[in-house]
TrEMBL record:
Cofactor section: Mg(2+)
Keywords: Hydrolase
GO molecular function: hydrolase activity
UniProt source species: Methylovirgula ligni
InterPro entries on file: Nudix_hydrolase (IPR020476), NUDIX_hydrolase-like_dom_sf (IPR015797), NUDIX_hydrolase_CS (IPR020084), NUDIX_hydrolase_dom (IPR000086)
PANTHER family: GDP-MANNOSE MANNOSYL HYDROLASE, MUTT_NUDIX FAMILY PROTEIN
Similarity comment: Belongs to the Nudix hydrolase family.
Domain Nudix hydrolase: 22-149
Protein name (record): ADP-ribose pyrophosphatase YjhB (NUDIX family)
Keyword Nucleotidyltransferase: no
Amino acid sequence: MPIYFRHIAERLRLRVLSLLRPPRLGVRCLLIAENAGPPQVLLVRHTYIEGWYMPGGGVDPGESALEAAARELREETGFETIEPPKLYGFYFKRGSRDHVALYIVRAFRSAGPRAPDFEIAEMRFFPHDALPDGTSPATRARIAEIFAEAPPVDTW
């Protein structure tokens, strides 16, 4: 199936699920690389929605939010945590009835090559104060809060 049709099918599937399913818990991970120079953050661009986001996804049945964060990080980026991620905040996602747990990851390593999939089109590190055009408003807001050492707000 051409990528365009997969893109439309995935967006339609997500929209239908959002109307039929109960509220869901999602996780996001902010990877912060502090090697040399200013800190950089890892963002991903999905194939089925425009913009740049923090890696993450839904918590599966029987899985803790922390386990989901580690799994989504590995699946979407090919990185694994060296130390447990730190829970930064817990948010209500307006318009969807969902909630999001945001974890900060400062110690990570490659878990090997990322398996090919049709979900992630691109991933890149960016300076935390020079995010690319198209970065989602919520992603920008969370990164700004974290680097300003501000307390988390309650809405994603």
